[in-house]
Amino acid sequence: MAEDTLIHSTDPKQQMDRLLAIMRALRDPETGCPWDIEQTFQTIAPYTIEEAYEVADAIERADMDDLRGELGDLLFQSVFHAQMADDAGHFNFNDVARTMSDKMVARHPHVFGDESRDKSADQQTADWEVIKAAERAGKDQGRTLDGVAIGLPALLRAEKLQKRAARVGFDWPDVKFVIDKIAEEAAEVVEARDTLSHEEVTEEVGDLLFVMANLARHLKVDPEVALRAANAKFQRRFEGVEDLLAAQGKTPADSNLDEMDALWDAVKVAEKVSPA
Q: Is the model's pTM score more than 0.90?
């Protein structure tokens, strides 16, 4: 099929090939889009991260129509990176798909091999980690924390680093030790605020955030999920404060902290009566 015909195809079975053809056309040095031609892995990476978060946002809102579109945007990011790699002679999209397929088959011997499926999800997770550790060893990543991507969001990376260390026994045996550490780190932040430089204060705040991620892990709470929920709650309640002010013909700029704090409490009470 000619490329132009494929680009305009409505055949459901051709949509992946159609998307790849569209990407090739956008990156064509002579007839493509100047913006797409100029892009590099580095310039596209922030969009890739953003699209992943927009997928998570659509899931959080249970908006399936939006999720369909956001998954398409995220897929296009993979296609974009693969096309740039193809242009540079590194690999193409088929190589990406084959690598992923090979990995999934190798990591699921209880589905695609001879291993029994008669084991718990926890045991399958443990087996998965053993397989991944062997893969890292094959890549000369023999150290415990090798392979935890530097580009991950800091909170998520903290959790992953801590999980890796815990696998080799470097972990507090009980959550009470984590809580004690939080109190210690919080006190160090207060001391640093009064006596140390901004850089040292930043370091102490980082230590406190790191141990907070550890608390979430010990409580089996996903810190990213918990913080997203806290962000959403803060936005919802602050907008409630704005609504109450608007009913008085005012904006936050016309108010003060005492008034807004009282309205905040009113919004909280209203939520308990009629949960959002």
A: no
